[in-house]
Amino acid sequence: MLWLLLLQVWASCLWLGHSEVVNSFSTCSQFFYRGIFPSSALQTNSSALICQRYMNQYFFATLYNTQKRIPVYSAYIYQRGPGDRPAARWMIEPQLVNRTYPKQMETEGALKNMYHISEIQISQSQAINKDYDYQTGWNRGHLNPSGHQNSNVSRTATFTLTNVVPQNSSLNKGAWKSYEQKTVVQRSQNCQATYIIVGAVPGNRTIANGRINIPSHIWSGACCKMNNTMSAWAAIAQNDRNHVDNITLGDLEGRLSRLYNRGPVSLFHSDCPR
Ligand SMILES: *[C@@H]1O[C@H](CO)[C@@H](O)[C@H](O)[C@H]1NC(C)=O
Ligand SMILES: *[C@@H]1O[C@H](CO)[C@@H](O)[C@H](O)[C@H]1NC(C)=O
Ligand SMILES: *[C@@H]1O[C@H](CO)[C@@H](O)[C@H](O)[C@H]1NC(C)=O
Ligand SMILES: *[C@@H]1O[C@H](CO)[C@@H](O)[C@H](O)[C@H]1NC(C)=O
Ligand SMILES: *[C@@H]1O[C@H](CO)[C@@H](O)[C@H](O)[C@H]1NC(C)=O
Ligand SMILES: *[C@@H]1O[C@H](CO)[C@@H](O)[C@H](O)[C@H]1NC(C)=O
Ligand SMILES: *[C@@H]1O[C@H](CO)[C@@H](O)[C@H](O)[C@H]1NC(C)=O
């Protein structure tokens, strides 16, 4: 078995030099319970894997749809803590523009200055700030919300446009906020570690002249590790009304399998109760 161990060490060395837009989530597998990623039924031709990096640290993982210019999902560990929502500036993902660019999220302005590129070049593979400006009825809805992070830096890292979708503003400020701030807080009370994946099902409408897809549904699945046992829960909301359904993780996976229609969806390791 020694050769297996050596192979693992060698493989992990190969990963060390890897950039933020990655070929596999191995670089940031810590954000998935027991390193198990959701099934490939959620991926499309135009999915990019992003290990979300800021101030020399990884904070969460995002699967991003570069054609619809919204995330498929963000995966993170729930770590609520005291402190306020930062007044952060929105950032973008440099490596979606060019894989040779830095592996940390940046503001549009900083990237434009560093590489003398235009807004149009940045906007080809991802949403830019302007896409969300002056959109009445639609907010920049975080998938990984800043309120589920425990430090100024980890909260600031959620302010990347690769982590947001156009979300119905009533839902964003109403039932979804209540899900994030009440339901999750309550359900995670006895958890030593809570792994959450929040995603968005692409819809038929767009904002910004067809550039940005408006999801039909926003969903969340969680797996909680307690001292001697495991628990799980899930939620789903239609993006045109202010209501969130509490469902089981098994129900969510079933509904996502039907909504995406690309095969069975599994979000978490089999230890997480369905
Ligand atoms: C994937 O790519 C193929 C070939 O480029 C294309 O025919 C197909 O429609 C794409 N599928 C999706 C889901 O975008
Ligand atoms: C990416 O950036 C490098 C270095 O700045 C440049 O040589 C290359 O042409 C760029 N690639 C694309 C596809 O723009
Ligand atoms: C939080 O982080 C941002 C970005 O790094 C920084 O500009 C701001 O000053 C920080 N705020 C506090 C209270 O530390
Ligand atoms: C969902 O569950 C939470 C508690 O786990 C509860 O407070 C909330 O009212 C429920 N929401 C709905 C719409 O049933
Ligand atoms: C879990 O175990 C820790 C350390 O053994 C203990 O302090 C804590 O109270 C336990 N939590 C629950 C919910 O039993
Ligand atoms: C989107 O359009 C397709 C085809 O017209 C339809 O089958 C589907 O139900 C629509 N989805 C939503 C969320 O309206
Ligand atoms: C958002 O949800 C509210 C509350 O259900 C609804 O009245 C409104 O029409 C929705 N807005 C959009 C843009 O879908």
From TrEMBL:
<feature type="domain" description="DNA/RNA non-specific endonuclease/pyrophosphatase/phosphodiesterase">
    <location>
        <begin position="56"/>
        <end position="262"/>
    </location>
</feature>
<feature type="domain" description="ENPP1-3/EXOG-like endonuclease/phosphodiesterase">
    <location>
        <begin position="57"/>
        <end position="267"/>
    </location>
</feature>
<dbReference type="GO" id="GO:0016787">
    <property type="term" value="F:hydrolase activity"/>
</dbReference>
<keyword id="KW-0732">Signal</keyword>
<dbReference type="GO" id="GO:0003676">
    <property type="term" value="F:nucleic acid binding"/>
</dbReference>
<protein>
    <submittedName>
        <fullName>ENDD1 protein</fullName>
    </submittedName>
</protein>
<dbReference type="InterPro" id="IPR044925">
    <property type="entry name" value="His-Me_finger_sf"/>
</dbReference>
<dbReference type="InterPro" id="IPR039015">
    <property type="entry name" value="ENDOD1"/>
</dbReference>
<dbReference type="GO" id="GO:0046872">
    <property type="term" value="F:metal ion binding"/>
</dbReference>
<dbReference type="InterPro" id="IPR001604">
    <property type="entry name" value="Endo_G_ENPP1-like_dom"/>
</dbReference>
<feature type="signal peptide">
    <location>
        <begin position="1"/>
        <end position="19"/>
    </location>
</feature>
<dbReference type="InterPro" id="IPR020821">
    <property type="entry name" value="ENPP1-3/EXOG-like_nuc-like"/>
</dbReference>
<dbReference type="Pfam" id="PF01223">
    <property type="entry name" value="Endonuclease_NS"/>
</dbReference>
<dbReference type="InterPro" id="IPR044929">
    <property type="entry name" value="DNA/RNA_non-sp_Endonuclease_sf"/>
</dbReference>
